[in-house]
Amino acid sequence: MNSIQTLADKSQQPSTDVDANSDGINIAYSQTRVHTPDKDLLKRNRIISAFPAGKWLESYRMLRTRCLQTMDAMEWKTLAITSTSTQSGNSLTAANLAISIAMELDRTALLVDANFQNPAISQLFGIKAEVGLSDYLLRDTEISTMLINPGIDRLVILPTGKPMLNSTEMLRSPKMVRLVGELKSRYPSRIIIFDMPPILSHDDTLGFSPYVDCVLLVIEEGHTKTDELKHAAELLKDTNVLGTVFNKATDNKIRFD
Amino acid sequence: MENQTPDIKDYLKIVKIRRKFLIIPFIVIALLSVILAVVLPSVYRSSATILIEEQEIPSELVKSTVTTFADQRIQIISQRIMSRSNLVDIIKKYDLYADDRKTETEEKILEKMRKSIKVETISADVIDPRSGAPTKATIAFSLAFDDESPALAQRVTNELTSLFLKENIKSRTQSAENAAMFLSEEARRLKDKIQQLQTTLAEFKEKNLHQLPEANQLNQQELTSLNNQLLSLDSQERSAQERRFYLEGQLAQIDPNALATNAVGNRVFDMKDRLKELQSQYPSLLARYSDNHPDVLKVKKEIESLQKEIGSNTDLNKLNAELTEKKAELAVLLKQYSEKHPDVVKLQRQVSSLQQAMVESRQSEYANSSLEPDNPAYITLKSQLEAANADLKSLAFTREQIKKKIEELRRNLMQAPLVEKDYMDLVQELNNTNQRYQEVSAREMEAQISQQLEVEKKGERFTLIDPPQEPLEPVSPNRIAILFLGFVLAIAGGFGSVALAEMMDSTIHSEKTIANILGVAPLATIPYLESQQENLALKRRRLLLLMGLSIAGIIAVTVFHFVIMPLDVFWYKLLRVTGTL
């Protein structure tokens, strides 16, 4: 399966060409850095690509399929993933959803780490990224130079880069809006996933939500409170909410070695 | 969304998540109940049953003076038995509550003992002989004492029972005695009163003997008869008076002195007549002759001797009449003649001599003596007159007497109503007192019989039918009940704490909650992926917990061993408890 994916990727790669437009956005894969992470690290970090097919994987696939069905029907391309509070498995859900989307042979996924408060995507994949989204927003660094392929076909990661103080303002800046639009329109079958900070503790998500097509809320069992959920639902009532993910369900715990 | 109410699976999940809240309280409570069930000291109860026997002699024949109900008496006696001094004596005698006495106050120990003593009455349905209605009657009662030692329980119960029986007899006898004593005292008092009243009445009667109502009729009869007597007296008096007048008339016509004649036919003068004659001759002799004339002397001598003989010279009346006559003659002569006329002088001499004679006769002692009448007719009439006079006198006296008597009777009759009132009052009081005395003495007799009844123990009495035994089985605590209750409480506590934890915890635990809040079920549920490290950490945590628990348990057991009771004892008790299960 891996070999087939690689083949497919290779066959697709040449078609993606360097394309610098007026905004100086270059999102061609040709320059994408490929980082092959350590399999043990992935496994420790619960990245699904490190696991054999199983029940746990299936639940992500279910999530993927349901998300894609709705998004396809509504012709949505961008998805912001948030939660009510930290430690809910927000970033992990984003990463695993992106991977499972990338598993579809006809789709590509872009995972954008927009959590400036607590960037976690790079850590999950074990990537050492010096530059990222903040560099593009502050210093107009080429997007193409920042993109990283974590050794998974049809998946590209955009890290956060350096920490920003005014992250909300930057996320709402025209530059960012333009970037989102550009990313959306570049490939018809590309899904862009933004990993966002918790909706209740930071206003980043709330501020940025109008610029994405839909929002996915991660709920953690035994951690998310009903009041928080009600509050979050209240805040997101004008936004397209794709749905919720019930994370870390203890009903059927799965152990791994 | 379609099934919003929680079902059994959700509850199971809640329990599973919060099993700590279930298990810890359960274990703690269950353990406590086990310890409680084993450690609680056994209490043994020894009890005695005392029958209340009715009096042997039917109550129609002999009435008891003890009239309180049996339950009431039992209550009274138990109050007496449970008095402070009694209980303190028993505690000292049997050395009860030896441990408690070192620390607790006497009041608390007494309270504890009172709680340990139980008096329960046993009733039966009976039919009231008087009203015929079914009622409850106390036929027996049980007396029990609880203690941790069975032998002690029996001994104390024994003591209490005998106290109870003794107290009953004592109180009954005392009560009967008191009644008898009171009644005899009352009888004595009434008797005294009666005596006093009788004395008063006697005095009263004596004082008002004739005014008494009983004497009224008699008085009236007597009054009537006296009146009759008075009437007859009047007629008698009249006739006596008539007789007297007649006799007086007769007497006036008869000379008291009948003229006696001697053999020659001359009138025989008695000495008195001779004296009278001489005395009448003497003044004319004096007028004619001088004093020394022999005739004068002779007459004078004769007069003197006669006077001596008779003892009286002359009749004064006669002298007086003669004097008056002479004075009248003198007055007539003085009209005709001068004082020198010899007749006048003669008369004057006669008058003066008469006067002299009167003076002399008055001076002489024998002036009054008169001559005895010697006319038999006169004497007869005279005596008849005297008899009539005496009759009259006696009649007058009798009349006076009768009048006095009548007066007295009238007074008595007038006063009778006043006396009657006081008399009746006295009599009434005496009667009342007598009646009361009779009643009281009848009762006194009854009370004495009743007292005898009590003395001979023939009245209602308490009979010990079931003497206290040494109990073999403890009466409390009910260890099985404690265990069962503890178990139930443990479960309830466990589930209660789970429910409480669930209520306090507002975090989301199921997709259903999300569906309830948002109206949409989650797109997907990602199970928890537990890594090996986490698994290991969990295991280590559990191990640590177990170790901690066992250390705590060992400490608890040690503390239990040294503070509460040695473990071997506990084990022995535990075996006994499980043996009873």
From TrEMBL, chain A:
Entry superkingdom: Bacteria
Bias-annotated ranges (Polar residues): 1-19
GO molecular function: kinase activity
Region described as Disordered: spans on this chain: 1-23
Keywords for the protein's UniProt record, in alphabetical order: ATP-binding, Kinase, Nucleotide-binding, Transferase
InterPro entries in the cross-refs: Bact_polysacc_biosynth/exp, P-loop_NTPase, Wzc-like_C
Name of this protein: CpsD/CapB family tyrosine-protein kinase
From TrEMBL, chain B:
Domain of life: Bacteria
Keywords: Coiled coil, Membrane, Transmembrane, Transmembrane helix
Coiled-coil region list: 173-207, 316-443
Transmembrane segments: 21-44, 480-501, 543-564
Protein name: Lipopolysaccharide biosynthesis protein
This protein's record includes keyword Cytoplasm: no
